What does this fold into?
Amino acid sequence: MPVIRLDGVEVVLRGRRVLHSVTGGFEAGSLTAIVGANGAGKSTLLKAVMGLVPLACGDIELAVERQRIAYLAQQSGIERSFPLSVLDCVLLGFWPRVSLWRRVGREQRERALEALAGVGLADVAERPVGALSAGQFQRMLFVRVQLQDAGIILLDEPFNAVDARTTDELLEIVARWHGEGRTVAAVLHDHAQVRAHFPSTLLLAQAPVAWGDTDAVLCAENLRRAGNQTRAWDARAA
Ligand SMILES: Nc1ncnc2c1ncn2[C@@H]1O[C@H](COP(=O)(O)OP(=O)(O)OP(=O)(O)O)[C@@H](O)[C@H]1O
It folds into this structure.
């Protein structure tokens, strides 16, 4: 049963078609990598699922309310310049389940501090988010996702600018979420990493080239087709 079902999705941004003919679904409990060349439409696909870009065509059906989906956008400078402490930032993870009029309680603060300690960030809980290194910042964002306790988690290039050790730790967290039965999809570039850790893959080149078991999707023939599709697309755009 897909928890996200896409049917003929097309996205046009500033007069340019950046995604089209996206039909398929993310199965409940699946762990999927979304791969493809720069500009293939990977981030746009996640944004479309989150309702952050309008659909020119097609339909997206979700098994849960949008606000129950945890979405980690690509690391943004804007977020890093927010005058927020690390603890306050991760407490935002409780936001979808805390009503507007209720404050975050002591139990939730304790859970947040415990989760921060779990990724080695206990000592920096009171520091401003802007003081964190790229790796620490990404760990903090993973803690925020964890506290959101969402059944569906979408990650856009979560290991960008993160060193190998931190990447391994974050991959373990992703595997844990998968083990807990959550549906996880991540935009990634490293095919070796995808083969090692992600059972399913969506190979995108403005439209899906293949979607299914990672080993079958990332075969030479599909990668060649994706390359051709991207080159043809770029030539037409030019
Ligand atoms: N807000 C926007 N307005 C106009 N064009 C956009 C906008 N956002 C993205 N695009 C274009 O849409 C296309 C797909 O972008 P997208 O960021 O989804 O690609 P991607 O596959 O995630 O690429 P990358 O691997 O480089 O992050 C690109 O050509 C990009 O320039």
Q: What stands out?
A: The domain at 1-64+152-238 is CATH 3.40.50.300 (Rossmann fold). The two ends are 40 Å apart (CA to CA).
